[in-house]
Each structure stands twice: as C-alpha cells, then as structure tokens.
Amino acid sequence: MDATPENSGPVAPAAEAAPRPARTLSPLRMLLRQAASYPGEVAIAVTALLITSGATIAVPASFKSIIDKAFGKGANADTINSSFRWLLVVVVILGIGTAVRFYFVSWLGERVVADIRLKVQANLLRMPPSFFETNSPKEISSRMTSDTAIIEQVVGTTCSIALRNSITALGGLIYLFTLAPALTAGLLVGIPVVVGPIVYFGSRLRTASRSSQDRVADIGVQISEVLGAMKVVQAFGQEKREAGRFSEAVERTFGAAKRRIFIRSVMTAIVIFLVFGGIAVLMWQGATAVSNGSISGGTIAAFVLTGGIVAGAVGALTEVYGDLLRGAGAAGRLNELLLEQPEITAPARPLHLPQPPRGQIAFQNVSFRYPSRPEVAALEDFSLAVEPGETVAIVGPSGAGKSTLFLLAERFYDPHAGMVRIDGVPLPQADPAEVRARMALVPQEGVLFAASARDNLRYGNWSASDAQIWEAAEAANAATFLKELPQGLDTFLGEDGARLSGGQRQRIAIARALLRDAPILLLDEATSALDAESERLVQDALDRLMKARTTLVIAHRLATVRAADRIVVMDKGRIVEQGTHTVLSAQDGLYARLARLQFDTAEA
Ligand SMILES: Nc1ncnc2c1ncn2[C@@H]1O[C@H](COP(=O)(O)OP(=O)(O)OP(=O)(O)O)[C@@H](O)[C@H]1O
User: What cellular component terms from Gene Ontology apply here (predicted)?
Assistant: First the structure.
C-alpha cells in the first residue's frame, strides 16, 4: 500500500524549493491538449492501462480457481494444469501489458514536456528585453526545468496511477461483490477505518518532515554564514556566541526530528494494528462462513487478495490528488509563458527598407521612459540624424541614455513620443527582423556562446565560408590567436568564452560584426582596461570595421572620439553639446570635463 509509513518517509522536498500547487486541476487541460497531438500513443497507453487493471483483478480470481480446483478434493492433472495455465496467461498479459503501459505513458510524459519546452523557448525568443526585466531569467529557467519535471512526473506517472487505481479499485469492488456481498459490505465499512488514520497521520508526518527539513536548512545557512565571516567572528571574539547560536539551531533540528519520528512510530503502530486487525476480522468472518459451508476456501483467498489490491488502490488515490494539484500549478506557470504576447511586433503589411541600404539612422524628437522606471526619462526630446558613412561618437556620464539609443535603434522598445527611422522608414512600419538585419551590434562585453570559435564568429551570418571567416578574423586582428588555438576554428570556446582574454573576446565580437557586413554599426566600446598592445589591436580592428559604415559608437577611448566625424555629448537623455574633439575640448563644457576624467585615465 502506498500510504504505509515506509513510503511516506522523512525526506520531503525542502519547503522553499517546493513550487506552489494550483487550487484547481483545470490548468491540467493544457497537458491534455498537448497529449492529444499523439492519439495513437494515447490509445495504446489507455488500452494497456485497462488491460493491466483487468489482469490485476484476474490474479486473485485465478488463485480462487487454483485453491478451489487444483487444491480441492478430487483434483486431477487436467484441472490442476488448466488452473495454472490460466494463472500463467494472466501473469503473461499483466507483464506485457505493464511494460507497454509503462513505455507509452512515460513516452507521453517525456514528449509532452519536450513539446512544452520547445514551444515556451520559441515564444521566449519573440519577447523584447522589457519582458525579461519583469520576468527574471533565473525564474524562467526554473520553470523550464523544475516545472517541466513536475509535468513529466504528472503525465508519465501520476495520471497513470490515478487512472489505473481508479479502474482497479472499481473493478476490484465489483469482483468482491460477486465473490461475497456480505463480506464486501463489511470491507467497505472497514476501508475508511483503515485508510482514514493513515491519511491523517500521513499528512501530519509530511508537515513534520518539512519542518524538519527547514531546520536542517537553517543549520546550513548558519554554517555558511559563520564560515564566510570567520575572520570577523574571531577578530571580534564571538566564538562562544556563535557556538551557542549553532547549538540552539542543532537542538531545534533535533526537536523537529523527534516530533517527526514520534508521529511516524505512532502511525506505524496504528497501521499495523488496523491492517492486520482488519485482515484478521475478515479471515475470522471468512473462516466462519467456510466452516458452515456458505463459501469456499478459494473464495476467501481471492477475497483477501482482492481486498488488499482495492485498499492499495484507494490508498494510492488519496496520495495522487496533491501531486495533480502540484502538476496543475506547474502547467499554469508554463502556460503563462506560452500565452505571453510580445509588445513589439511586425505590422500586418510591413514597409520594406529601401534597397540598396543607405545606412541612415535618424531619431526625431524621441522621448522614452523604461516601463519599469516611468519616473525617469531615459531620453527626452532627443533628435539626431546620422548620415550614411558617418561616425558619431556618443559620450556622456553614466545613465545619460547612451545605451537606450541602441535599444531604440534596434526596436527593442518603441518611444513614447517621436520617431526613429532607418533609411527613411519609420521603425513601427517595418519588420523588426529587417531593421535588425541592417545593423551589427558589438556589445561592451564580447558575448560568446558555449560553441566552437567558428560558430561564434559566424553567429550573425551562418553562410560565411571559412575563407570569409579568416578574412574577417584577419581584419579584426583575431587570426593570430585563433590559429594558435588547439583545434583552430573548431576549438570549443567554453562557457562564456572563458578560455579567451577580454581583448580577444572583443576582437571576436568585432570579427562577428565584420562578417555580418551590415550597413549600420552599433558599437559599445568596452570600458575594461586593456594593456597597450591589446588596446592597439582592438582599435586597429575597429578602424577597419567602421570604414564605409554608418557607425554609432558609445565611446570610451580617446582614439575613437578623435577619429569620429562628430561627437554627441549626452546628459539626462538630452544632447548637451555636439562637435569635434578639438572644438569641444576647447570649450569648458561637459565634454572637456568628461574627457579630462575619462580619456586621461584610459591613456595612462
Ligand atoms: N532596463 C531598464 N529599466 C529601467 N530603467 C533603465 C533601464 N536601463 C536603463 N535605465 C535608466 O535609463 C536611463 C538611461 O540609461 P542608459 O543605460 O541608456 O544610460 P547610459 O548612458 O548607457 O549609461 P552607462 O554608461 O552607465 O551604460 C538611466 O536613468 C537608467 O537608470
């Protein structure tokens, strides 16, 4: 029986890790819809389920026939053989049916989870950055792993348990009535008497187990806190106090464990008493009935066996409801991710950008506030037109709105007022994919994927040949170190490109942008200090990248601002100065101040 104390042991999942269950089972409908895409597998699984439930009941029926006929007076070889032949057939059907059921039910569980993961990921890829500000990537990734694991459990196990045990319990009861109606009526009264206390103590035991787990977690928190601050503890002479605090936590844990084991021992005693007592009462009634000849010994054996099966099925059913609610909670959370609609979409009939691309980008009276910080204007009545081939350096203190310009240019957000245009086309009227195809982004941190050097380089242009890749690497001053990698372009760069230096990562990002060969370049220069040699290599690579492209660069290097056609100085979302390095340095404005602070240190 699933509800015996042995099965509801102390190892419940830690409370903080347990995802919230739902209040109703209705979110599970989403799983049914998913599973319905595989009608063949569902049909086989349900058929196997029905057959195995039937075969489970057929086992005691076979025993009845064996005891009455094969062990009975006047048994001959034929009756013995045929009784055992039946048992053998039932056992073979039960074995094969169980294997088929397990395979297809588990298959459905895994398939439904795989489909949900694919659909959720596909939908997440459509979401703009604002979505990931309100939905933390950590939380989403936990939904994709732990919630899907719960669903896999629900579809692959719990639903099967629920269905199988309902059928078994019902079929078993019907069989019991046909065997011995009076005894069955007694059993029906007896089941709640046995199962009730087990369910009651089972739930108390789970609560006690959870609290016991929490206390263990408290110990873990204290240990890591004290170990992490050992110097402070010792320097302030707090060893005694910490020992005292720890001893309290350990004793609390012991207290919680004591409560748990007490409940469990009482529960064990009660279960043993009720289960064996119940069986004894049944056997006593049965023995009386056999002695007065009203039923056979085989019937009693079949009755006790079937009774055990029915009680087990009912016990299992009382356990699955909680699991189904947990599954419904998980399905609900994943469904939210599936139903999420992106705010930024292509219009029904998008305007195409002109061909060939000119590489013009214009911000016209743009005002924008981030949805999560509506009180601060990230851009305020901002206007800037960058002509084809022009290099504009954006300079300004932290929080001035420099990165926001890039986000609006890529149409990750729409401005609240004003308009952004690429080659004369207003962004909301174009397909975001087409807009982004006109741009190459070099982020501040050269973002690398856990993939080969080749795949990292051609991330924006998968059709690039090796010859083109090397050409770009050459231009980005990345070829030398790439050639030295153990397997050349096939070398795995490790998670986050951990095997490369900062300067090398930047040069890979530059080579990637070169391969993308887009007319507009959005370049966020790295602030991290590079050594002089690396700095020269990166600058050299950037010069080649910017050639013949419209470039908007968030500048952190003196060489960049010097080479720019125009410097735009921003503060609080507005342009405060514009001009060349020489002109702006001569004025005693924000630029001169920033340049003194920023570029002098960079040069040093
Ligand atoms: N995702 C966001 N959610 C809410 N507010 C944001 C977000 N990103 C930026 N901001 C705010 O918008 C304003 C402009 O930020 P932005 O990142 O464009 O500045 P920046 O000039 O690029 O700064 P830095 O040089 O530090 O990167 C700031 O006030 C900033 O706090």
Answer: plasma membrane
